[in-house]
Amino acid sequence: MILKNHKLRLLIGFAFFSFLFALFVPTVHATPGPGVAVKPNYPSTQIQNSGSFFFKTKPGEPQTITVDLANLANYSQTLDIEPTTAYTSKDGAITYKPGKMPSDRTLKYKMRNLVKEKKQTVTLGANQTKKVSFTVNPPKKDYKGIILGALYIKTESKNDNVNANNVNLNNKVALVMPLMIKSQDKKVNPKLTVPKIAPNKSGAQTIIDTTLANERPTTIKGMEVKDRIYRKGNPKKTLAKNHQYQLSMAPNSNFKMQNDFGKNALLPGTYHLSLQAHDMNGNHWKIEKDFNVSIKDSVIYNNNNWWWIALLVALFLIILLLLYLIYRQKRKQKKLLNDRTKYVGD
């Protein structure tokens, strides 16, 4: 009898937990989406078959490249294909997304300017494949390193695009076909620099923007960066620090790495950045750089240190008052001198 009651309790418990599982675990339904595939057709100058374009160029000699675009969906799709220039995103990754990119003074050639066709639009029927051509016009002179970009392929979407199952097909798909060229076989090593350091704000938080720049026409991959910021002359007290892994940078590009200043007051004066970095190819960098914080920067970017801001404003007003008093005193002295000269003359 005891055994039967035990089995009954187990059965009731199993049924109860089965009911809870069925109640709280949602059922997943498959939804059809836009499927697109792209395949590069390598030119005869292709260096390696890696799933993307990487070929050698001769000065001023155009090369035609083609890609096969396949619509894998059971409805027609319109694709926009646009050549872009590689740059480094704000998160420290190589990206090819079209639009405004951070400028870099060391970037000599932009891939999007070397491709003749600026944008092509192709409509593919259901399960249809088409070949699309682009012409790459390399620089008229030999160039060092690589020029990196991509063919950025994006599906157009329409809110009224509904299939036979009344499923709204307004999802967008973006594909990237990297495009890299070179004219020399000589290896180029990356060069990491810090061209600018400046205070800034992220919400209500004070930060220090450290601009990291790759000044050479080659990529940086698998980079680890460690840095710290302290007031010059007081290296024992770290005011901000950062440690980031697996960063990558496009040729001749830059991005801003942020240091959270925490609750530390951003006082006017000279600060120091101490930075060390290395990448997966064995390159190492050590950068030591001073930067200044002005009274104006301290007032604008301080992290809610209102007492310090009030002190700075009061100091600024005192300086203005002193300048005014000095100006008035000099003006009074000048007037007295003019009056004496006039009296002597009479």
Automatic annotation (TrEMBL):
**TM annotation in the entry:** 306-327
Kindly indicate whether the keyword Membrane belongs to this entry: yes
Q: Which UniProt keywords apply?
A: Membrane, Signal, Transmembrane, Transmembrane helix
WxL Interacting Protein peptidoglycan binding domain residues: 38-154
Q: Which residue numbers delimit the WxL Interacting Protein host binding domain?
A: 165-302
Superkingdom of origin organism:
Bacteria
Q: What is this protein called?
A: DUF916 and DUF3324 domain-containing protein
Q: Which organism is it from?
A: Fructilactobacillus myrtifloralis
